[in-house]
Structures are given as C-alpha cells and as structure tokens.
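Q: Could you write out the predicted structure for this multi-component system? I'm mainly interested in how the pieces pack against one another.
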Amino acid sequence: MTPILETRGLSKSFGGFFAAADVNLAIEPGIRQALIGPNGAGKTTLVNLLTGTLPASAGTVFLHGQDITRLPPQARVRLGLSRTFQINQLFPDLTPLQAVVLAINEREGRSHRFWRAVDAGREVVHEAMNRLHEFGLDTVARERTADLPYGRQRLLELVLALAARPRVLLLDEPAAGIPSGESGEILDAIGRLPRDVTILLIEHDMDLVFRFAERITVLVNGRVLVEGAPDAIARDPEVRAVYLGEEAHV
Amino acid sequence: MTQPMVSPKPWWPMEVGFFLIPVAAFFLFPLHLPLITEMMILALFAVSLDLVLGYAGIVSLGHAAFFGLGAYAAGILAQQGWGEPLSGLVFAGAVAGVVGLLTGVLVLRGSDLTRLMVTLGIGMMLFEAANKMNWLTGGADGLQGVMVEPLLGAFQFDIFGHTAFWYAYAGLVVLFYVARRLVHSPFGLCLRGIKTNRLRMSALGSRVNLHLLAVYTVGAMMAGIAGGLLAQTTQFVSLDVLSFERSAEVLLVLVLGGPGRLYGGIIGAVAFTVMHEVLSGFTTHYWQFWLGLVLVLLVLFARGGLLGLVDALRKRAARGTASAAAPERAA
C-alpha cells in the first residue's frame, strides 16, 4: 500500500547540530502510529518539519504521494494534514461553538464571506454542534472557552483539529497536563477516532503509546533508531537500553 | 432545543434608537450642526480603525494617512472641476483603499512594535509629501477652491450645514451597516480568531495574511471615505488631515469608547467632542490635561473603554441581583 505520509532523508540542522537526521518514515493509511523518544530526541522538530512550521534543511515530505516539502503550514492543512498542540491553542474569548464553526468555515473556504451572517450558515452550525456532541461538549457549546475545565479544553483542541477533516492527524502529547485520574475522557476520545483518519501520536507516556499504537517509531538523537510493532519494540534490547531501560530501572 | 446562535443576538430596536439620536440632535441643536457633522465624521473614522485594530488586532499609529488621502482625493477632484459629491466619495475611498492595499503588505509582517513604527513612518512620509507638493495640495496653506456640487443634483451645501449634516449622517449609517455585517460574518469571526490565536488559525488552514490584508484595505477605504466627507462638507483640506496628531486622536477616541465593539468608535467620538467643547470652555489652552487624565484612568481601571465600563457595571449589577436571589431560592 502507498504510504499516506512519507519522509525521505528528512533533515534539519541548526548550525552544525542535526535535530533531525536522514529520517525516513512511511506511514500507512488508517494506522495508529506512535513516535516516541527520550527528551531531546527531536520529536518536536520532526512535527514542525511535517507541519511546515520549520523549513527542512534536506529531504522530502510526501502527503498522499504529493511533495509538500515547500508548502506553508496552512496549505498542508488544506491538503489534509492536521494537528493538535501539546499546549492548548484555543480561542479563550470565543465559545466552543464559534471556534468549531470557524474551523469548518476555513475548511469549506467560507472564511472570506463578509456579507451574510455567520448564523446564516445553518449546515455549518449544525455540523459544529454534531462534532461537539460527539465529544460531549454540546452542553458547554455556548460558554466561554476560557471558563471550561482543562480537560474539556483538551477535548476541544481535538475537535478543532478534526473539524478540518484531516486524512492524517498529528497528536502532540494529547493527554499532556491532564491529571492521570482524569485522563480517561481524552483516552476514550482518542480510541474512538474514526478509522479513515491516520494518526501519528507523539508521546512519552508509555501507557498511552502501548494502549493505542499499532506501530511504533523510536527516535533518538534526531535519527530513527528502530521501527516496528509494539511487542517487538518492547522486546528490542537497543530500545530498552536507550529509552525504556531508563524507566525500567526507576 | 433553541436555535443554535453563533453570534450574539442582534438587538435591533436599541440600535435603531441609537441612530435616531443624531436626528433628534438636528432639531435640538440647530446652531451646532457643523460640530455634530464633524463628530459623525470622526465617529466613522474611529469605526474604520476599529475594524483594523479592534477586530483584527493590527495596531496603527498612522491611520490618518488614509483619512488624509481620502480628504485630498475628494478635495482635489472637486477643485479640478469634478464636484459631484458621491462619485467624489467613491474616488476618496478607492485612493485610500489602493494605498492601504499596497502599504498593508508592509504592515502584515512583524510584531506590534514593527507595525506601530511602519504605520507611523508611512503617515509621516505622506504628511511631508503633501507638504512638499504645493502645486497639488496647496501645501501648508491648505487646499483652496474646493467646489462641491449639490448633493444628488438637488441639495446645495448650505451655510447652516443642513445638507452637510444629512450627508455625513447617511455616510455614517451606511458604512456602519457595512461594518456591522462584516463583523458578524464568517470573515469577521475569522478576524477575531486571528486576533486571539494566529497560530491556531494557520493550523486550521487559514490564509491569515490574506485576511489581514483584506481588512486593512477595507479599514483604509472607510477612513478615506470619512476624509472625503470632511473635505466635501467643509470645502477645504488642510495639511493636518494627514498629521500624526490625527492618527493619535482617532486611536484615543477608539480606546475611549471601547475597541472591538463597533459602537465604541461612535461613543468615543461623542465623548471626545463633548469633553473638548466643555473642557476648553473653562481652560482654553489646557483642556488636553483633563483629557489625558481621563484616558489614563480609563485605560488603567476600565479596560475596554466607556462601553467596557458599562459592561462591567451591568455584570456587577447582575451578579448582585443573582446573589441576592440565591438565598431566597435556597430557603
């Protein structure tokens, strides 16, 4: 099967330091893949290279076979590559409903319409309510986002990324900042994400990774150390040595 | 389930009432019509800045550039023999809009400080250019000989300022209506999104720069039309339409009224003009001292200007009645 997201020789150097070096990824459509690695392994750099926030020093990124290496972030989103942020990037003063309507308007290329009222887009408002309902946010749809509990805001982050109708979704530490006792809601939500969306999960919480991932890529010092099925990764002596080993001894 | 509203429900009756106030003023203060006309033009100018600053978050210290361009465009057109006012206004808006589009590209990039300096710099350049181009603008003496034809071919601009009053009133109402539709549209929501979280907007696939450029151009056009109205109703253009003081004044007016709510520009223009009149009545030269004091107090203690103050008081009153009612319910 042709990979939906692929990188070939993707590199990023800052001065002489390679934050990403010759990274080759091939992510199959519909799969739940995790990208793990110790701090400083280059996970964030790789995400920024994929989304276009950072320009690549060398190498190529393909989305569904199309070379997107030179495209700006917003163009990649419109081609179906969406992301969530490790730190919430929301609209504190808007309501969740307004935010999701905003996201749908962008997807549908309606955001330049300046004469008709937002509310006139009935089907947009309808879709937004449905999307909020799916994640249990319909009851707070008209409250100020800033007034919502953190866990709810985390869910909204996910709804916004999904409203772009992505084919590939990058989840950057989706459970970050949520107390472990309250993370159930977000874990359920990730488990229920539709199968036609390919997911690349960037995470260092091993519970989360081994619960969802069907394939795991281990990144160390900007390079892919190993890639494989979860049980193979868990047994890999090299991985245990540089990464899991640290935790196993704690 | 109730109808899912995205934007707050429009409060039409109150808004209609608000726009009837100038009509009442026409009959109540027949001797102050030129002053009220100028106030309405200032209000329109402030509303144009509100689109740019209040909704899109683009700070500017040079918004008078577009006001002045519009004033000179309309004034020079009439001076050169094309005195029909409505087409003159369209011309004023177009000239300001084109310059807004061109300079907007420079304003897009960079931080707030960069934007302040770029807008300030462009304003200074236009001022000096107008000063230097004596042959076209009349330089420091101002543009003389502006001859405006009767409005719609029927209403002569009279010395009492009746026609000028209704002309400016119509301009304010029509353009306010346009601005109001714009801020409640998907485009308006998108601007609010960009203002609060630009990073998220581009992560949603938004062409952020294109939208900012669009609103900057619209704001410039609207400011140009305000300038055109001033030139036509006073039949004169002086250099100060392009001055830094005018840029600072409109910013002050907007902050005074409350940015990001459209009505803030109008309320601010009224408050500013009234304060000017009253305060300069007993301290001719030093009235700006009191203006400065009010500004400092307002910005420190009532962020969101006069309208923000009203909102805060209303919320406090609502909370007061709610907490007063709560024990009854519990009992």
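A: Regarding packing and overall arrangement: Confidence is low (pLDDT under 50) at residues 326-331 of chain B.
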